[in-house]
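DATA SHEET
Item: assembly model
Revision: 1
Owner: S.N.
Input lines:
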Amino acid sequence: MIRVGLIILVAVAICHTASASAEPPSSRQVELLYLLKHDCGSCHGMRLEGGLGPALNPQQLQALSIETLGMTILHGRPGTPMPPWKPFLSKEEALWLASQLKRGIQP
Amino acid sequence: MKSLLLILLIAWQGLAHSTCLTRGTGDMGIIIERASGSVLVIDTSAHKVLFRVEGLGDLSHASAVFSRDERYAYVFGRDGGLSKIDILCGTLDKRVLQGGNSIGGAISQDGKLIAVSNYVPGGVKVFSAADLSLVADIPATKTAKGKGSKTVGLVDAPGQRFVFALYDTGEIWILNMKQPDKPVVTKFTDIGRLPYDGLITPDGRNYISGLFGEDGLALLDLWHPEKGVTRILDHYGKGEQQLPVYKMPHLEGWAVAGNQAFLPAVGHHEVLAVNTSDWKESGRIAVHSQPIFVMARPDGRQLWVNFAFPDNDTIQIIDSETLKIIKTLKPGKGTLHMEFTPRGEEVWISVRDKDEIQIYDTESLTLKARFKAVKPSGIFFTNRAHQTGL
């Protein structure tokens, strides 16, 4: 049992290294996804299929790296209505959200 | 045998009808449950949910208009869905997917046409209110990227007209549907950068579009369209750093009190007051955060204001005479929308994160009743059926 747990831990650790970002704790993940659905959703659509802001599905985001996307979330896009979310999110949290979007999450 | 069949038929019809209500609808309304694609049909006198109607698709940012007999609600969903609900029977009468991604609509002066404003593919589509069949398709101006401009702020206007703004290309269009098979479009270009919403004054004369891309608002006098679009309040915000906007304000609730109108300022913690005779600024009210809806109680004596993320747990009430804040309420996180009963003794407020509707007495400014609703957003009462622009 302990061994299985260890293997899972190691596997998770490898995944982390691969995505080069620390995952927020699961309770925070729930909050972040709620924010994504309802507050990002007020411009991008609750299903992230777009609204006044563009759709946030993997096809739409194909050309953008997780890093670029994370920076856009943190700093916004000057000249457009996209605001900086830095007051509410850490860099790790923005990168985690970006990686979720790239994976095509449905919040 | 024949008579037995007849009796059975009558009994069956009786059953079928017994699920529909036999009553007036003037004290009814609907509440959007945004996350579950459902709508509650409510009784505003009894504070009661009568029906839950399901299967309406993506209702983020959904809005609704009513047929002039106040029996049917037309709900505009984000996924391009246009749904017709029978509020007496609590049933989904008809639903069409009319666009890829839409943002509200309007019902014509004669009640026979429903117009829907689309983000994707852009433009406006007009449907028969009776059966939701397509009557006219008005594509928007193409942007540099070759896509149709998003259309916003669609309202009805006297003379069987609709008015709306084009977000990407900075235009206001008047669509005349007097002859449904020959729609006539009048275009006003260069009205300002990124119009994000629009409203029409209750008399149906003035269309105003809020601009995201610059200070001020664009005004079109529908009595004198030949005079073109003029800029009002063009000095507001000048020289001040606009704050990040976490939710676009809404202009739909046109708050008029006496000879003043009140508007949410974009990117500022202010409500703007404007004199409706000359459209000059007559005051600014510093408020808790960035306003989303500024709604006047039907008698005009109070203004109720809600706010953008992260301050969307608050409502402030302003005395329209003194322009002072008389009360700050904390209904809870995700206080998204307010709707006054027709003569204003109550206001119903949706509180998304608490999954509830709160009903306030507008004289004592205290909570009077509450009931459960799943992630509620827009609240729409049937008296909207007889108001231009709603």
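QC remark: Chain A touches chain B at residues 37-39, 41-43, 45-47, 49-52, 76, 81, 83-84, 87-88 (CB under 8 Å).
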